[in-house]
Specification:
The protein has helices at about 1-25, 35-40, 150-155; strands at about 45, 50, 55, 65, 70-75, 80, 90, 95, 100-105, 110, 115, 120, 130, 135-140, 160. The chain has one domain: UDP N-Acetylglucosamine Acyltransferase, domain 1, CATH 2.160.10. The strands form three sheets. Strands 2-5-8-11-13-14-15 form a seven-stranded mixed β-sheet, with no helix packed on it. Strands 1-4-7-10 form a four-stranded parallel β-sheet, covered by helices on one side. A four-stranded parallel β-sheet has the order 3-6-9-12. It is built from three helices and 15 strands.
Length: about 170
């Protein structure tokens, strides 16, 4: 009976974690309920974070994910901190993660960085840098962070492309 009890005690936290993850994906409350549910799972989350609908944040080891203050995570993003080996994922303050982004284990997204929609981030992103693509690569330096209160026009006017556009 002792072995069965030990197995159950080991299994229950994993089941609770998965239930909380599913609730966080489906329920409303991008700055309230979703954030609270992920914190209950063990994800380290700062202040004023916005998490979009259907975003998946590390299912097995949520404690390996750290999200700073004023971070925006777009809808349907996936953040993985394990594949073959676990590796922490850190998203620094004021970062913007666009919709449908995939962040792989061991990645740090720098402060004020912007990851464009649909990008696959397999390497760390420097602070105040915009990246896009698969794999994500730098395309511009950000003059100001892209936040909830930043007018998009102001953000765009402060971007500095890394290479000249070809004609």
């Amino acid at each position: 009976m002792g072995e069965r009890k030990r197995r159950l005690e080991k299994l229950l936290p994993g089941i609770a974690n998965r239930i909380l993850q599913q609730l966080a994906m489906l329920l409303p409350g991008a700055m309230g309920l979703r954030v609270a549910l992920h914190r209950l799972r063990g994800v380290r989350i700062g202040k004023d974070v916005w998490i979009g609908h259907e975003s998946l944040i590390e299912t097995a080891w949520p404690s390996l994910v750290s999200i700073g203050d004023r971070v925006i995570i777009g809808i349907r993003c996936t953040i993985l901190a394990h594949f073959h080996d676990p590796g922490p994922v850190t998203i620094k303050n004021d970062a913007y993660i666009g919709p449908c982004v995939l962040i792989l284990p061991g990645v740090t997204i720098g402060e004020g960085a912007v990851v464009m929609a649909g990008s696959v981030v397999s390497c760390s992103v420097a602070p105040m840098t915009m990246v896009q693509g698969n794999p994500a690569s730098p395309v511009a330096k950000c003059g100001i962070p892209l936040g909830l209160s930043t007018p998009y026009k102001d953000f765009l006017s402060n971007l500095k492309p890394l290479r000249a556009a070809s004609n």
